[in-house]
From TrEMBL:
Belongs to the FMO family. It is an enzyme of class 1 (oxidoreductase). Its cofactor is FAD. One of its GO terms (cellular component) is endoplasmic reticulum membrane. GO terms for biological process: lipid metabolic process. It comes from Delphinapterus leucas. SUPFAM superfamilies: FAD/NAD(P)-binding domain. This is Flavin-containing monooxygenase. It comes from the Eukaryota.
Amino acid sequence: LYQINHHPGIIFPSLAGIEKFKGQYFHSRDYKNPESFTGKRVIIIGIGNSGSDLAVEVIHTAKQVFLSTRRGAWIFNRVGDYGYPFDVLLTSRFQYFMKKICGQSLANTFLEKKMNQRFDHEMFGLKPKHRALSQQPTINDDLPNCIISGLVKVKTNVKEFTETAAIFEDGSKEDDIDAVIFATGYSFAFPFVEDSVKVVKNKISLYKKVFPPNLEKPTLAIIGLIQPLGAIMPISELQGRWVTQVFKGIKTLPSQNEMIKEIAKVREDMAKRYVDSQRHTIQGDYIDTMDELADLVGVRPNLLSLAFTDPKLALQLFWGPCTPIQYRLQGPGKWNGARKAILTTEDRIRKPLMTRVIESNNSTTSTITMARFMLAVAFFAIMITYF
C-alpha cells in the first residue's frame, strides 16, 4: 500500500523578469508567518486555497496585498445556510440526486447563484469564464471582506517583473513591491515505484484511482490520490478496505485491457468537465466515488430496501450528509452501532455550537415537523419512481 501525499513537489512558473526582481520571492510551501511581511507590499500569485488563505492572513501585517489570478475563481464558504458547515449540506444524496436529475448546467446555475448572493463575483473581479463545477473550488470565508475593505486588491495575471515592480496582463503596474509569494500549486510523484507508476504532466493511469493496470499481479495500490469535493479520508478508508480484499484474493480486478479502457474513459470525462489544468487531473465526485468503492467492497446501503424496512434510517441516508458510517451498516466490517451513529449525526454537528441553550419555539418545532413530513413523502415518491 502506498499512501500518497498530494503535495510532495511544487509548481513554480517562470515569469518574465523574476530573476532581476530585487524583492523576496518564494513558493507558498515555504511560508512561515505573516510577521515577516510587516509594512510590505505583497503580491500573491494564485487563487487556490493556499493563495486565498495567505491573502487573508498576510493583510494583518502587510501594507497592501495584491492577489493575482489568471482565470479567477468561484469562492465557496465554509459556513452554509443556517450556519451549518457547507460540506454537510453539499455532500448529501439528495443534492447528488438533484444534480443528476437537473443536469450539470442547471446545477452550475444554482450553485453560482448561491455564491453570487453572498457577493457578486464579477463586481469583485473574481468571476471566471468557466462554470462553478468545472474547477476544484476555492474555499474562503474572509476573502470578500478583505476585498471590499481594500486590504486585498484583485489583479490579473502577472506579465513581467522589473527590479521593484510588477506589470500585469491588463497593462496596469504596481510599484514598490517587496515580496512575491507563488501559490501556484503542487505536483505529485512516486519516487519509490517510478518503474511501476508513471506520472506525466501530473496525470497518472490508475484503475479506480488505485491500481496500476500494467502489473502482472495486483501487488501495489495507491491510497488517497483523489481530489473530491468532500473529505479525502473516508474515500481513503474505502479504498483500503477494497485493496485488502483484492490482496487476499476475495475480489479480483478486470483484465488489463478493461482497466485501461476505463481509465481512458474517466480521463476523457474529466477533460470535458474541468478546466485544463494540472490542478484537475485526479478529480472525483464524492458520493459517486464512495458508492462505487462501496459496491466493490460489498457495503453500499440499499436505500430502496431500507425505505420499506427502516424508513427513518433511509430518510437520514438520503437527506443527511454522506458520512463513512453509512458503509458500516452491512457487509464486511459491519458495525452494530452504525445505525445509531447515523441517526444522531445532526446532534453531533449542533452540540459544539450550542454553548448557550435557548428554549425551543413550539411553532418553529411544528413547522420543522411538517417540513420533515413533506420531505418524507417526497422521498418515498423518489424511491418508488427512480430506484
